[in-house]
# Entry
Amino acid sequence: MGIKKPVRTAIYGIISTLLIVGAVWYLQIVNYESSLGTNNVVNVDNNEAGYSNNTDDVLSVLSFKGEAENLSWSSLEITLKDQEQEYACTFGSQSSDNGQTGKMHSTLGADAKTFTTVIDATSEDEFTLIDISNQVESNESSYWLKFSKTDLFFAEDVSWKFLPNIEFASVETVNVSELSNDTDDRIEWYEYDFSVHRVIPNDGVFVLEKNDSLYKIKIISYYNSDDDSRYPTMLVSALNGTEFPALQNPNLVVPSPCKIIVDDQQPNYWNSNETIILKENGINICAETCDLVLKIKYETIEVKVNYL
# Structure
């Protein structure tokens, strides 16, 4: 005996509803847009008429097109490319070309004092241990924090505090007496968005102290530039006058051939109405002819540029 028409109709309705819900869910996942990056568009005016054999030429003049937001220098990366040669533009230093190996990779930001650090936490069997101050993979005796998948722990000799809902650049000093010594438990640093199946870092900044050295850390993503999961990505900078050994390591940092010149309205930000200059820094990047291509990233996401 066959299924009666009303029952069959109800079954078809349920199946159709499930298919529609599944399709909508799938579209939410594949069309997910990260909250990282900016909608700012950068106008680029290359100073082609001013190129020479000198080593202090103005290379490009940059400003924002139309309405824009202030961008934190700690989250910016600016690179000039002439044919196959690339030049980082910063306030003094850039990441070294020496290949970094192991399970972490650090890139120095435009402010020349903040690293964007990507950690390979893909192993399910062991943690990746990180020495924050030296920006290297570490061991049990000297690590600051360790990651495996989403599991984050701080070393037992680390004191810490989480400052919620605050911009990374806004944290300039911290009262160390307010830090916690509780490192036994797993650090709750994220929420899981079931609607798009994504790990979303909590908005805020961690402050870490060890051996009188103080650093701030903001986890900005659980994904690398290829959108692979288990690659927590964070901003790292020193606080309270702490000396940052990684900035003195020639295997990580070298002088930048391209220098950023600003008017210092707000030294921590590229302001929405501010024009900046990219200038040679003791190296002849462009002789009489040069075809410069500019690449800008904000919070690891590429920024649109408009050549004038």
User: Anything to note?
Assistant: DSSP finds one helix and 25 strands in the chain. The two ends are 76 Å apart (CA to CA). The mean pLDDT is 90. Residues 1-31 form one domain.
